[in-house]
Amino acid sequence: MTTRAPLLSARGLKKSYGGVQALRGMDIDLAEGEIHGLCGENGAGKSTLVKILGGFVTPDDGELGIAGQIVPLGRPVDPALLSIVHQELSIIPHLSVIDNVMMGARDVRALYRRGPFRAHVRQTLDAVGLQHVPLDLLAEKLTLAERQLVEIARGIARGARVLLLDEPTATLSDGEIEKVFAVLRRLKSENATTIVIISHRLNEIFALTDRVTVLRSGRHILTADTADLTSDALVRAMIGHEVKTGEIAPSHARVGVAPRLALKDWSLPGRFAAPDLSVQPGEIVALVGQLGSGADMLLESLAGLKPGTRGTLSLDGTEATPRSIPEAYAAGIAYVSEDRAARGVFLDAPIGTNLVSQVLGRVSRAGRVLPSAVTALATELAQSFAIDPARLPHEVSTLSGGNQQKVSLGKAVALGPRLLLLNEPTRGVDIGARSEIYARLRALAERDAMTLLFYSTDLEEVLEASDRVITFYRGAMVRDAARAEVDADSILHDILHGPDEVAA
Amino acid sequence: MLLRWLLLIAMGLIFTLANSYFLAPGNLYSLGESFSLLGLVALGLALTMLVGEFDLSGGAMVAVSGLIMLKLGESNAFVGLAAALAFGAGVGALNGLLTLRLQVSSLVTTLGVMILLSGFAVWLEGGQGVSFSNYDLTDAFNASWLSVLSPRSVITIALFAAVGVALAITRLGRDIIAAGSHRKAATMSGANVASAVLSAFIASGLFAALAGALLAITLGRASSTFGANLLLQAASAAILGGIALSGGVGRPFGVAIGVLVLCVLNNGLGLIGASSPVVMLLNGAVLLVAVLVDGAPGQWLRRSRAAH
Amino acid sequence: MSTQSRSAPLPGPLSGLFAPARVQATVIQIATVAMFLLACLTVDNYATASNIASILYAASTVGIAAVGLASVTISGNLFALSLGSTAAFASIIYIQLSGLGVIGALLGSLALGVVFGLIQGIVVGLLRCNAIITTIAASSLIAGLATAFSGGRTVLATGGPSWLGNGAILPGIPWQAVIFLVVVVVAELLLQRSRTGWELRLRGTNPAAAELAGLRTRRVVVLSYVLAGAGAAMAGALIAAQSGTGNMRVGADLDFSAIAAMLVGGVAISGGRGRIIDVAAGTLFLAVLTNILLVNNFAYEVQLMIKGLAVLVAVTAGALLSRKKR
Amino acid sequence: EGAQEGKKVIFLGADDICEYCAVYNGQIRKLAAAAGIDLEVVTNKFDAAQQATQIDQAIAKKPDAILLWTIDGTALFPSMRKVKRAGIPLLLTDVQPDQKMDDLWVQYSGGNYEEQGAKAAQLMVKAFDDKGMEKKGGVILITGIIGQAQTISMTKGFTETLAKLAPDLTILGSQPGNWDTGTSTQAAAGLFTKYGDQIKGVYAAEDIMMQGVLIAAERAGMDPTKMAMIGGGCEPVGIQNIKSGKQYGTVLQSPVDEATYAVQSLTDYFNGKEMAKSHYVPHPMVTAANVDQVCKPWPKD
Ligand SMILES: Nc1ncnc2c1ncn2[C@@H]1O[C@H](COP(=O)(O)OP(=O)(O)OP(=O)(O)O)[C@@H](O)[C@H]1O
Ligand SMILES: Nc1ncnc2c1ncn2[C@@H]1O[C@H](COP(=O)(O)OP(=O)(O)OP(=O)(O)O)[C@@H](O)[C@H]1O
Ligand SMILES: [Mg+2]
Ligand SMILES: [Mg+2]
């Protein structure tokens, strides 16, 4: 594979943002028709590399050649040659799905007739699992996962020779991921498309890629055939040391005390009906289900975000049904959104401000914010979430995606809630940081007896972080079991097929 | 939008009942004249809002282009018209380039241009109003077709239709909506943001200049004071017509409705001879009703209606 | 060229003067001082107490209105267009109440501004209506009420000018400038240091995130309109105190002057960015510029053209300087 | 006599936001009612384009006559031609357009702005004489909104007359005060800073603007009682300032007179009287000596 001349070849790419060196001299070669994995910690420079290759970021130094031609840097490359599925989605909310897919396509003329493209776009959408989405639907009506799939469909529909996908699976469930991967494999085999995929889920890397490149601190660490790599070797290359995964951690659930969370007749008509659920202090519960299973809505309803929810919610034996987010916070329930950029963090505010933003009362006296208290609390939170305290005055938007996620978590944990609700807690977080976060969450459960409920589409995460797993199918619970009693297969079975077949 | 229609029809009914002349051809003609002036400026402004920007210089452009039209068009009206339109397009391009190159809010750049233009208007006027002695042309533009349509209103309606169609079926139109809807995503996904922004500003300058030139021809006069109230009204009309300040939302047809709401209101109030405070209060009240219908109260209404 | 990163969660007042987000504000501040010094050197009688007072009188009224407006902008609601009519009504009320003494009349006009601001705040913040149209509607309604109330007539103060209208704490420093200073300092502290101010700014950077974070967003939106109403009313009252007259022409240009001062000062229209001292700087920039043009007796059209160019040049300089840092 | 009774007249005028207009509108309503004329008042925000459409509307209503306060002296000629073509008699008030076109209207009644400016110049010369000042040195002008017909005429009348009567008085500077006290204060302050003691007199085209000039003068430490301060209109604020001695004089233009003349003009027309093309209201010069006799306080409604 390495003997052929590379289709794309980059040399000595350097990029710094202010004092932050995102890339410090990065080389990469991509062969025609290979699937190439790009791995590295949060902030390693993966997205920066991809954006430089696409011409969306101008590097400070370096060279780029595609198909034997020197490509000018910092000017968007022809999307029919090289196309990117961006980490921060580039879906345009007020355009229809078909317009979004056709965005950047070269054969759209000044007079834009959609007719000739409809069949092709329909096919592409169907292939990635969007059979149910009408072509003329406005993209703003799509869920996050559907937008991700539209973005992928766009990348595919352009038929580019090089397709770069930056964490395309972070918001997707396993079923959806499988479909996407099937399409990618077909692109490779039928069109000899060169595909680069970034993912923090190592199983995906091993399942899909031919070769892997690892970056660390903006530098090239290794490139190897995937077959020659082990999971441990890959992790070591990414973060420089081992990370323990896969063991079942002991539960810190307190028994013999009143339940922390007790739900009675909790339902949102037409969406979900939860069983009379009870969760102990210190317990970590994963809610698992596909989109539409109601598992994520159940989580949101507990934070008072779903008007129309019926039933009662008790915390530590007292009724505390929240009707709005402030009521939830007042009751000791905190919520972390899955949509980090739109609702999770204040991208344009400093990291420190973000971290204390939900506990302004605690860092102020008589209505006055105390700078020293802010610094102290922000530093403490930054340290416990492995955020570099030196960057506290910088805006969150300057952080890599994974580090932004840590800020989003840190600001909710700052509330010191009794019940912490997490929607996709480590979406886009690298494997090293992820185990740091799980350890931190576990410590909260142990030390403060905090109860955690999280919704995740990432089965690895579910298995690694939870004490107890509750699966959902079409609005109803399928199974409520201790972590030790389930494995990936059984969970997948539950959420894909529901209770009928469990019984069978 | 349905509620805007209802508002419009309700006002039409009320004024028809209150004054038998509301539907008289002469009155509809004058309605068309106001629609034309405000409509052109609002249409241009709406395009800049659609692309996620805001052109404050439209009102001042009306004054300047009128003055150019008459100063250069005394002997040959086409020369004047061409000069006025070229000037409008040029200033629009300048607005667009400044906004794109400097990457600052267009409110700031067009604010500067607006002040500059109003000074330029006074300078052009040179302390005297500028009048037009080509009464043939003026009369031609004051002609009426089917006793309700004037050349100005026909031109305006045609432009509204053309812009509406262009937004729907051209790549540029798609890119304008994309650039306004989500600028960063539009850039990342390969839309031609620069040409979208530039075209919107050029159109805005051009339409405002056309409004000014046509006004000058119909009045046979141009002055630096013309167009003073237009900007605010145009913004009201555009927002009322469903254009969102955040960009990407709304279409020319909606803007036309917004413009009509304001024009019918003021036409009707003028017709029934409402006193100044009443005119102001009713203008405020109608706008307030329109926003309430879009805000939470309207949503409650719709929800409770849906519940029954 | 990199700006020193500091461990304070918010940059202090002196750090990062040339950071991309601050560069325009800094450029305007420097330009204001430079213009003033240049005028002192080149224009006879420029640095006299009476001329400085004249600059400060003009700046104080527009500035106070712009500070109130800035709270609306920074909290994420773009701008308000009801300042002019509020100021006009307040000028009438101020004169009508002048029998109550300066403080009484001032409080009366402020109360009027607060009530109008509160109503707009409720419509925008609680009823979630379009912010711009709401203020345009309010402007029309307030003007209508004021015209009905006054019959369109000018009300005249009896007796001589009060300390508020004409008094100075020092030669060249009128009381109105002192009030402006106090308003700026209080508003700056409120926005930068108070919990409410933090909530207001965070709401401006991202309304959805602020709501999900449980911040008291409705409250700060209502508050911002109250501040805008109060600022406009205060401006109207100060104008009335100066001239001893109140009528519908007061505040005719206030909306645009305030928006211009704020934008030129470097407050971002998209919310969350910018400070009250920027508003003050923008106000002074335009006031000094206007004064220089008037003092040189430039023709009106030349004044306008220079002003427009100055705005463009300042913005361009700010943009180019901040570009380099990126 | 009495032929005007029951006649339908549409009056197109200016909004109440200008005080003069408000008084005028109130008066004409009252006087027309007293004369038995069925008067409909339609106002606009000093917007020539809006007024043009209002004229179209008025034509559609086929009144017995249209009384027009033209917002812009010449912008409305095409509209006036339409009125003429529709066969509706047109009478003008307050603003007199170019008289070359006077076959378009029956009569203009109201102020004579050029004469007002000229009277102001005469009054200024008188002030110099009265105060024992040498007619030498400089004066400044604070004008109305640039580009308006009134502003153009008043400035013309003042400048030409002053040049004739006192050739040694030079006009140092002129700035618009936009019929507004605050704007006038700033404009005058700038000129006072620049010219200081060179300024011996000020002509502000309206008393409400003179009020701004007086404030600026006091702030600049100048004594207005020692200067030739001439306003216009004899408005309430002007009366106050004349009585206190800060303002030397003003030139009367009364909205009450104008409204009276306008109704008279209508009455004359309907009664088939012989009518002159122009019927000007008196513009007497007013000083402290005659202010009480000449200037009637403006009626409250
Ligand atoms: N616009 C920017 N301004 C300042 N710093 C930036 C900017 N974009 C990226 N960085 C910094 O550059 C470094 C590399 O970021 P990049 O987004 O490439 O990381 P990544 O490898 O994609 O991480 P993740 O896995 O979290 O997405 C990070 O330290 C990030 O904070
Ligand atoms: N936890 C974090 N919080 C904030 N910023 C981070 C964090 N981790 C990394 N970054 C930023 O991302 C950039 C690159 O990140 P990366 O993690 O690759 O650096 P690193 O491995 O710590 O490198 P080095 O050891 O050279 O400092 C760094 O400049 C750093 O400022
Ligand atoms: Mg990334
Ligand atoms: Mg590291």
TrEMBL record, chain A:
The keyword Nucleotide-binding applies. Keywords: ATP-binding, Nucleotide-binding, Repeat, Sugar transport, Transport. GO terms for molecular function: ATP binding; ATP hydrolysis activity. Residues 8-242, 243-499 form the ABC transporter domain. Pfam families: ABC_tran. This is ATP-binding cassette domain-containing protein. It comes from Pseudooceanicola albus. The lineage of its organism: Bacteria, Pseudomonadati, Pseudomonadota, Alphaproteobacteria, Rhodobacterales.
Automatic annotation (TrEMBL), chain B:
One of its GO terms (molecular function) is transmembrane transporter activity. InterPro entries: ABC_transp_permease. GO terms for cellular component: plasma membrane. It comes from the Bacteria. It is a multi-pass membrane protein. The keyword Magnesium does not apply. The keyword Cell inner membrane applies. It is found in: Cell membrane. The chain crosses the membrane at residues 30-47, 78-97, 104-124, 154-172, 193-220, 226-246, 253-272, 278-296. Its main location: membrane. Keywords: Cell inner membrane, Cell membrane, Membrane, Transmembrane, Transmembrane helix, Transport. This is ABC transporter permease. The lineage of its organism: Bacteria, Pseudomonadati, Pseudomonadota, Alphaproteobacteria, Rhodobacterales.
Automatic annotation (TrEMBL), chain C:
It is found in: Cell membrane. It is a multi-pass membrane protein. The chain crosses the membrane at residues 23-43, 55-80, 92-119, 131-152, 172-191, 220-242, 254-272, 279-298, 304-322. Keywords: Cell inner membrane, Cell membrane, Membrane, Transmembrane, Transmembrane helix, Transport. InterPro entries: ABC_transp_permease. GO terms for cellular component: plasma membrane. It comes from the Bacteria. Signal peptide: none annotated. GO terms for molecular function: transmembrane transporter activity. This is ABC transporter permease. It comes from Pseudooceanicola albus. The lineage of its organism: Bacteria, Pseudomonadati, Pseudomonadota, Alphaproteobacteria, Rhodobacterales.
